[in-house]
């Protein structure tokens, strides 16, 4: 083939499309940016931190010329060791996957999640949908080549910190139990108020309700019939509700605190990551304190009720 018969190559340039800026001076397509804030307790000091985070990131995003504010997702009094109970976190992920967010910024990796698996799973899910995360304290961008490695390291450190705090807390609680320290949820405990030094102090009006429940049970009333009668009389439950149920009545009848004693560590958390409370059936030590506080039900009546509970349970079993 001669030189004359050869065809010359022709290169055609296809210009890039202008996604962000337009030639005619139209407004930029701004990056939609959301922020996530979380504090793990409802304490006053933490509440200040929570409010400060919300205000800071709201103002910070709105000041950026090429960003548009896509929302503030914030949670108060929620642990970071699991994402299952973090409603705002899940809502943020759903909005991002739906294409409503381009970038998520947060204070630190530990604010995002203290569980390594949860943290990486969420970040990879977001990345698959083109959503980037920025952690201000560590200066980590997830689209950066080293981003995932750094997040893995920082999440692991945050998770170990949570483990250490959890173990120290459990150790402190068990030492308190060994020393006879009784913890009671007074706001949801019928019959007693918190005394000046944190001790159980009899609430006379509520104590009458407790005594009535014990008498009705020994008179042959079932849990559900007692509950119906209490509801009919307009007596509030331990949680301040107006409708009683049989389970609440049974719990009151079985609670040793009404005889002046206290069984400690009835429930325990097996895993610091999910913090699910389980009934203690011998997995960890329990501590029984005799004569811890003033009784509402005398020992004889309390014992009769326990025997009647067993009798009815055996009868239903047959």
UniProtKB/TrEMBL annotation:
- Locate the compositionally biased regions of type Basic and acidic residues: 16-28
Tell me which residues make up the Recombinase domain: 189-315
What the entry lists under Pfam families is as follows: Recombinase, Resolvase
Q: Which Gene3D superfamilies match?
A: Putative Large Serine Recombinase, Chain B, Domain 2, Resolvase, N-terminal catalytic domain
**GO terms for molecular function, please?**
DNA binding; DNA strand exchange activity
Q: Which parts of this chain are annotated as the region Disordered?
A: 1-32
Q: Enumerate the InterPro entries for this protein.
A: DNA_bind_recomb_sf (IPR038109), DNA_bind_recombinase_dom (IPR011109), Resolv_N (IPR006119), Resolvase-like_N_sf (IPR036162), SSR_resolvase (IPR050639)
Q: Which residues form the Resolvase/invertase-type recombinase catalytic domain?
A: 32-180
> Organism's domain of life?
Bacteria
What is the official name of this protein in its record? Recombinase family protein
**What organism is listed for this UniProt entry?**
Blautia segnis
């Amino acid at each position: 083939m001669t030189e004359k018969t050869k065809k010359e190559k022709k290169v055609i340039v296809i210009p890039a499309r202008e996604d962000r800026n337009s030639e005619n001076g139209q407004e930029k397509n701004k990056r939609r940016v959301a922020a996530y804030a979380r504090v793990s307790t409802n304490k006053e000091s933490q509440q200040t931190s929570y409010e400060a985070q919300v205000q800071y990131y709201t103002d910070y995003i709105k000041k950026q010329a090429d960003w548009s504010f896509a929302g503030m997702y914030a949670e108060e009094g929620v642990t970071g060791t699991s994402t299952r109970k973090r409603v705002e976190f899940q809502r943020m992920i759903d909005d991002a996957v739906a294409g409503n967010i381009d970038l998520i910024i947060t204070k630190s990796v530990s604010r995002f999640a203290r569980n390594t698996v949860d943290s990486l799973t969420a970040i990879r899910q977001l990345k698959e949908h083109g959503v980037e995360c920025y952690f201000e304290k560590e200066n980590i961008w997830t689209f950066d080549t080293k981003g995932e490695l750094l997040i893995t390291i920082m999440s692991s450190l945050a998770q170990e910190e949570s483990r250490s705090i959890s173990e120290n807390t459990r150790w402190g609680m068990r030492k308190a139990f060994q020393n006879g320290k009784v913890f009671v949820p007074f706001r949801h405990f019928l019959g007693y108020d918190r005394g000046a030094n944190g001790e159980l102090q009899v609430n006379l009006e509520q104590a009458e309700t407790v005594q009535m429940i014990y008498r009705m049970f020994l008179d042959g009333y079932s849990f559900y019939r007692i509950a119906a009668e209490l509801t009919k009389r307009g007596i509030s439950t331990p949680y301040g509700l107006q409708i009683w149920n049989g389970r609440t009545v049974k719990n009151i009848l079985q609670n040793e605190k009404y005889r002046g004693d206290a069984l400690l560590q009835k429930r325990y958390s097996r895993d610091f990551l999910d913090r699910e409370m389980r009934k203690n059936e011998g997995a960890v030590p329990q501590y029984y304190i005799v004569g811890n506080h003033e009784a509402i039900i005398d020992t004889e009546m309390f014992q009769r009720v326990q025997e009647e509970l067993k009798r009815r349970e055996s009868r239903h079993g047959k």
